[in-house]
Design a protein that fits this description.
By secondary structure, the chain is α+β, with helices and mostly antiparallel strands. It contains 14 helices and twelve strands. Helix 3 packs antiparallel against helix 14 and helix 4 packs parallel to helix 8.
């Protein structure tokens, strides 16, 4: 039982969708600039490599920073993007919608083989984290993963996720926003069933062949930074956080979000008001007001954004469709170390907005 509790505690940090910051740091963050946060995060850390990309006036640029915010040569590094993977999974769902394969108002029972005597969430509820599902559910394999230092979700099979869906009893018709990695594992099962193809093939083909993101794929641990998570091609949680990419691809992906009449337009439309910002998150500029197909909507600043975190990486992608400004931050640091990429990215995006006024 003690081991189970330890593992569950570790899982709180896996696929970090939002922020956990100590009160000590929290009090300093509001007054910090982008440069302040960058210097703070990289201070006296020789292993830090943070790549920051900007889209402004249609122009794309990036810089690489190391210890003490020193600018490094503009080398391309391969990062785990964590939960930013969910925006790709959501885009695959949207693609299926456009092809007439999925209706997001349908229950998942229409697309999965499930007992008929239970209530199940809709596709829309999974996309908006309002399904009633928890962030994760404990599996025995997580104990072994914990002691081997592996990704907690390694070895959690699609069959085990499907069996869990069959057992879960949802009592209400409406649930509040609760960020769910499990929910996106279920969406992965839906995508596989409607296309009759495994998620790895679907995602890699979508990213590389349809979007032209040649360096974006489900992680195979190849890259130049190390400490990548273990994954198996049959793991159920791949759709929640298994993509690796580099800054060139992620800036191109961000630019696609800003295009008019793009594949992603419907992904950006608000599907649910969630009002999940609290005093702490607001004080550091992280607003979670509404949600589209996985994209978080900050109505105060007119930003759309998502972030991600794994054991050794964290990331942020945010943009304003009206001004055309966008920011990508890719970091080889844990989201729990000092200040996350999300805060750094929001600081920079706000400064871009101010300079444009």
């Amino acid at each position: 039982m003690l081991i189970s509790l330890i593992v569950l505690g570790v899982l709180v940090f896996a696929f970090c969708g939002f922020l956990l910051i100590t009160n000590y740091r929290l009090g300093k963050i509001p007054a910090m600039t982008f440069q302040d946060t960058l210097e703070y995060v990289t201070k006296n850390d020789s292993k830090t490599i943070i790549t920051v990309g900007i889209i402004k006036n249609g122009e794309v640029s990036y810089k690489v920073y190391g210890e003490n915010a020193k600018e490094l040569p503009a080398e391309l590094y391969v990062y785990e993007i964590g939960s930013l993977t969910k925006t790709f999974t959501a885009a695959l769902i949207n693609k299926a919608v456009k092809e007439g394969k999925i209706n997001i108002d349908d229950s998942i029972a229409k697309y999965l083989s499930l007992p008929s005597n239970k209530k199940y969430p809709t596709i829309k509820e999974l996309l908006t984290h309002t399904s009633g599902y928890k962030s994760h559910y404990f599996e025995r394999s997580m104990i072994k993963n914990f002691f081997k230092g592996r990704n907690d979700f390694y070895g959690v099979s699609k069959d085990s996720v499907l069996k869990k869906v069959c057992k879960i009893s949802l009592k209400k018709d409406d649930y509040k926003f609760n960020y769910s990695n499990f929910g996106f594992a279920v969406l992965g099962l839906v995508i596989e069933n409607v296309y009759n193809c495994d998620y790895v093939t679907l995602l890699n083909d979508f990213a590389q062949k349809e979007l032209g993101l040649s360096s974006t794929k489900i992680s195979d641990k190849s890259g130049n930074l190390g400490n990548y998570w273990d994954w198996d091609k049959n793991d159920a949680h791949l759709p929640a956080g298994a993509i690796t990419s580099n800054i060139e691809d992620m800036l191109l992906y961000a630019k696609m979000q800003l295009e008019e009449k793009s594949l992603f337009d419907d992904c950006h439309k608000s599907l649910k008001k969630v009002d999940s910002s609290n005093k702490m998150s607001k004080s550091i500029g992280v607003n979670i007001d509404e949600i589209g197909m996985s994209w978080i909507i900050d109505t105060e600043n007119n930003f759309l954004w998502h972030n991600g975190g794994t054991g050794h990486y964290n990331s942020y992608l945010g943009f304003n469709k009206k001004t055309g400004n966008g920011v990508v931050v890719l970091s080889n640091l844990s989201p729990m170390k000092k200040i996350p990429a999300t805060v750094i990215g929001i600081k920079l995006l706000k400064e871009l907005e101010e300079k444009g006024k």
